[in-house]
Write a structure and sequence with these properties.
A hairpin with a 1-residue loop joins strand 4 and strand 5. Helix 1 packs parallel to helix 7, helix 3 packs parallel to helix 5 and helix 7 crosses helix 8. The protein is α+β, with helices and mostly antiparallel strands. Helices cover 49% and strands 14% of the residues. It has eleven helices and seven strands. The strands form two sheets. A five-stranded mixed β-sheet has the order 5-4-3-6-7. A two-stranded antiparallel ribbon has the order 1-2. The protein has two domains: 151 residues, dinb family like domain (Four Helix Bundle (Hemerythrin (Met), subunit A), Up-down Bundle); 95 residues, SCP2 sterol-binding domain (Nonspecific Lipid-transfer Protein, Chain A, 2-Layer Sandwich).
C-alpha cells in the first residue's frame, strides 16, 4: 500500500531542516569545511554538496559533467550518481556553498508550498521503489537531510540536534525496513521474536517476528527471543550506516534475551544504500 504523508507537516520539516543545515554551516572556517565526516571520502563540504545536488536534481537541473572515475569509495551506481554533484562542488568556497544552498532550497520550498495534498498523494518514483507517493519521496528527502545534518554536527564536535518531530519522521522511514534488517541483514533464525525499545524524545517500541519472513507485528506470539534498548538517535545513526569513529556499535545498547543474536542484530542494523 502506498504511503500517505501529510503535506504541510512534511514541508515544514524540510523547511526546518534546510534552515538547520544553513545555520550549522554558517561561519565555518576553510579547515572546518574540509573536516572529514564518518562517511567514507566525504568532508563537511561534501555532505552539504550532496544535499544541494539532490535538491538541484529535483529542480530539473542537469547533472554536472565531471569525472569521478578516480574516486574509490563508491559502492554502487546510486553512490556514483551522488558523487557527481559532490565532485562538482569540491572547489566551491564556504560563502558560495551557503549561497547555493539558500538559492536551491528556496526554490524547492516554493514549489512544495504550492503543491496540494492530492499532488503529494500522487504516484511517484522514490529511492524506495516506484510504486509509492511523492509524499513518501519527500519524507525520504527529510530523512536523508536530517542524517547528513547530524554527520556534519558530529564531525564538527557539536551535539546532535535531537528533536521529536524530526526523529519521529525519520523513524517512520526506518520502520519500513525493519523486516529487511531482521530477516535479511541480521538473518535471525526462523521463529525469532524481536523487541526494539527506543528511548529519548521520541520513544517507541518495534516488534518483529520471523515466520517464513520477518515482519513488523502488533504483538509477538511469545516472549522476545532478542531484545535491544537504545536511544532513538543512536538507532537512527546505526540504521543509517553511520559508524562514528571511536564508538562501538554496542555502546549505549541494553540487551535482553539471546545475547549472541542481539549482537548480530546491532552489527547489522544498517539498511541504507
Amino acid at each position: 500500500m502506498a504511503t500517505i504523508v501529510d503535506k504541510e507537516a512534511a514541508v515544514d520539516l524540510l523547511r526546518t531542516e534546510f534552515g538547520a543545515l544553513a545555520e550549522v554551516c554558517a561561519d565555518l572556517t576553510p579547515e572546518q569545511w574540509d573536516t572529514p565526516t564518518c562517511l567514507p571520502g566525504w568532508s563537511v563540504r561534501d555532505a552539504l554538496s550532496h544535499v544541494i545536488g539532490a535538491e538541484s536534481g529535483l529542480l530539473g537541473e542537469p547533472t554536472p559533467a565531471v569525472d569521478v572515475s578516480h574516486l574509490t569509495h563508491m559502492r554502487n551506481p546510486i553512490a556514483e550518481m551522488n558523487e557527481v554533484w559532490v565532485e562538482a562542488l569540491r572547489g566551491a568556497t564556504g560563502p558560495e556553498m551557503l549561497a547555493r544552498l539558500s538559492e536551491v532550497t528556496s526554490r524547492r520550498l516554493a514549489l512544495l508550498d504550492a503543491m496540494t495534498q492530492e499532488e503529494f498523494d500522487a504516484p511517484s518514483w522514490t529511492p524506495a521503489g516506484k510504486d509509492e507517493t511523492y509524499g513518501r519521496f519527500m519524507r525520504i528527502r527529510h530523512y536523508d537531510c536530517y542524517l547528513h545534518e547530524q554527520d556534519i554536527r558530529l564531525a564538527l564536535g557539536l551535539p546532535a540536534r535531537v528533536t521529536p518531530a524530526d526523529l519521529a519522521s525519520a523513524l517512520d522511514e526506518v520502520a519500513t525496513g525493519l523486516g529487511y534488517i531482521v530477516g535479511r541483514r541480521a538473518a535471525l533464525p526462523e521463529g525469532s521474536r524481536v523487541r526494539i525499545d527506543l528511548t529519548g524524545p521520541s520513544p517507541r517500541t518495534y516488534l518483529v517476528q520471523v515466520d517464513a519472513r520477518a515482519a513488523v507485528v502488533d504483538a509477538l506470539d511469545g516472549e522476545p527471543t532478542v531484545g535491544i534498548e537504545l536511544p532513538a538517535m543512536r538507532f537512527l545513526r546505526l540504521t543509517g550506516g553511520r559508524h562514528d569513529p571511536g564508538v562501538d556499535p554496542e555502546d549505549g545498547v541494553r540487551f535482553t534475551g539471546d545475547r549472541e543474536l542481539g549482537g548480530r542484530l546491532v552489527a547489522n542494523l544498517s539498511f541504507t544504500i
